[in-house]
Design a protein that fits this description.
The chain is mainly α and 255 residues long. The protein folds into two domains: 1-33; 47-252, MetI-like (MetI-like fold), CATH 1.10.3720.10. Helices cover 80% and strands 0% of the residues. It contains ten helices and no strands. Helix 3 (61-92) packs parallel to helix 6 (126-151). 30% of the residues are buried.
């Protein structure tokens, strides 16, 4: 029996144990505690009609997921457009990096959700505020990984392009980008997972549509089983996003 089969069987056993422990613990908790069967039945109900529309906020789970993904991808792409060129600039110009580093170190630990009230006050729009929060979430991992990737380019390559008088655009496309892509994509992977985490909390506050709003709406209805269904969908979506970026990362390894 191969190790993969053993791992699969072990995973199945652990899954069964986890479900049994869940059921046993639910029997001793409050009446509204979710149970495996209750979550299954509610999941079948929710997924049986995921595309329905019955008003601006009363929509199927598919549209909530699409709204969240649209916000995440929009903010993620905007952050990449800002952070990657800035990372190249700061990675190459040490004096500029030293000048900006204190500001980066002050802003980087601040939770993106702390900016949400400011975004609402300035933008006066829930959709744009959600994207604004995602930009701030995604910015730092991309920026810092790009800076590190640029700083670790082999100096021999840079000296060689300088000695040969290689045009700047050719140096960027043939040396800088191939050498920094693995680091940049690592930053993209981290920022995408962080953005997916943050959008759930942000949507609980901005309302409207989105999987985070769905979770909060179900809480207001005390529909805990539906919340667990949403949590599972959030996890599966995050897993798919991570695997997509991971697959991209494997194609650009550079030595």
């Amino acid at each position: 029996m191969s190790d993969r089969i053993r791992a699969g069987l072990l995973g199945l056993v652990l899954f069964v144990i986890a479900i049994a422990a869940w059921q046993l613990s639910a029997d001793h908790l409050a009446a509204i505690a979710p149970t495996p069967l209750g979550v299954w039945n509610r999941g079948v109900e929710i997924l049986s009609d995921p595309f329905y529309r019955d008003g601006p906020a009363s929509v199927g789970i598919f549209w909530h997921l699409v709204t969240s993904l649209r916000r995440v991808l929009t903010g993620f792409l905007l952050a990449a457009v800002i952070a990657i060129p800035l990372g190249f600039l700061l990675g190459r110009l040490q004096i500029l990096r030293w000048a900006i580093d204190p500001l980066v170190q002050i802003l980087r630990p601040v939770s993106p959700l702390a900016w949400l009230p400011i975004g609402l006050a300035l933008l006066q729009d829930a959709e744009r505020t959600a994207v604004f929060v995602i930009v701030l979430s995604a910015l730092w991992p991309i920026l810092l990984n790009t800076i590190d990737a640029v700083r670790t380019i082999n100096p021999t390559y840079l000296k060689l392009t300088s000695t040969l008088g290689t045009p700047l655009w050719l140096s960027i496309t043939q040396v800088w980008l191939p050498a920094t892509l693995p680091g940049i994509i690592t930053g993209l992977r981290l920022s995408l997972s962080t953005s997916w985490l943050v959008i759930i909390a942000a949507e609980m506050l901005v309302g409207g549509q989105g999987i985070g709003f769905f979770v909060w709406n179900m809480w207001n209805r005390l529909d805990i089983n539906a919340i667990v269904v949403a949590i599972i969908l959030i996890g599966l979506t995050g897993l798919i996003l991570d695997h997509l970026v991971s697959a991209l990362q494997k194609t650009v390894r550079y030595d």
